[in-house]
Write a structure and sequence with these properties.
Layout: H1 17-43, H2 47-56, H3 60-78, H4 83-106, H5 111-130, H6 139-144, H7 156-163
Amino acid sequence: MTLPTPGREQGTLDTDPRGRRVAYWVATSLVAVAFVVPGVLNLIHAPHIAGDMAHLGYPPYFSTILGTWKLLAAVAVLAPRTPRVKEWAYAGMMFDLTGASASRLVVGDSLATIAIPLVIACVVAVSWRLRPPARRLSADGARRMPFRGVGPLDSPAGFSGALRGGAHE
């Protein structure tokens, strides 16, 4: 039995690394399933998904695009390392889910149907927030992996120089 330490809450995710790791993997597994299953159903154009997409006003080919993105996002959040790809995957998941909710709202669907993507978005946010340091894009990591563009505006001074009217060779 562990006695509580004064000034420190026991059992919170901030003070319990094991609990945080378990919560992360539970949330991330739920997120992966929530994206793999509909991703596959979008790709195979399952009748109920195709009907839903038509109801929302989307063309049939959009289901293929969306299914591909969903599967790639699920793989990205589960894969080790690749923190930059994970950041993009989490962002894409939030775009997908908030867009789904907005689409449902616009066509006049029920409040429950509008809320479902937002609840899943909350689970995505929990997964993102609880991810371990090795799965995060740190400021140092971002500086070590700079974007190497090829255009005149791709240097740090290039865009601001262009705004000031500077010439580039």
